[in-house]
Structure formats: C-alpha cells, structure tokens
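Appendix B, Record 12. Input sequence as logged:
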Amino acid sequence: MAGDVNLNGMAAYDTLVLEGPDGAGKSTLAQRLSAQHGFRVIHSPKTPDHLDLATRYREILNGTGLILFDRCFVSELVYGPLHRGKSRITWSEALDLAESVMDRMGLFVHLTAPPPVIRRRLLTRDGEAASLEEVTALVTGYQRVFSTLADYTKVLTLDTTVLELPSAG
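Logged structural output:
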C-alpha cells in the first residue's frame, strides 16, 4: 500500500497485532499509533525458552485497555521453524490466541516489503543484516502464516516499501 496509512482506521480497533520481519516497519508504526491514539505498546522480544509463550500472551490479552503488539506469537510461527527447526507455539494455540485478539476487537496487521528493501533498511539501521536468502525466507514465512490466519481472523496486509511513516530510530 503506497502513501500514508489510514491510522484512524486502525485506531478503531482495541487490539492491534503488528507483525512482519525485522525491518518491515513494525516499531515505526507502533510508535505513531501509540502517540496519536493512546495504544499501550507491548514489544515482544525473544521470550526465554523456559517460559510458555501461549500463557504469556493469554495473560496480556486478558488485560484491559488499548493494546498494540509490536511483534507477538505470530513471529514464533515464522522464526521458530527457520532458526530452531520448530515453533514453540502450536497452530492450535496460535488460533486460540488469534480468537482472543478478535474477542478484544482486534486486527492483525501484516507489514511486508520486498526482501531487498527490508535488507537495505536493516543495513542502514543496524549496520548489519541477514543474507538476502534468509530475509526472503522470512518474508515467505510470514506470507504463509498470514495466509492461514486470514481464514480465521481479520488480517490487513501493508506493503511498507513506500509507506510514509516517520522513522522510529
């Protein structure tokens, strides 16, 4: 999607899940939505192996108020198989959590861009980036996961290639 995202449309939801590979624009969009619409941003870094992911997200989703996830359980469905050969969350758990997001008047936002664009952003931001092949695998992984999730929940896909957002940096 080119141009400025209709943030007011996203702000109509009580729960937003921003997902996509590193460098897709999740944190940038999260900061803007938080500043303009009062979402509490929950950034989900790597969860230690001994913690149960599904329980962690269920507890958060049982809370109140406007919640915006800057990455969440969906990433485990993509990164887990690519980096560890398996996901720490089952599809059954993921669909149950997706239902909880929907029960909270939620929307999943799949942020994506062509792999060369994402890799270039990572190099610019971090000074390093995964190989183009790995970035391509991540973009493809997210497309597959969201293709399945879209059968069960609302998914908005945004191509952030030319998205007009202020930098989160």
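The mean pLDDT is 89.
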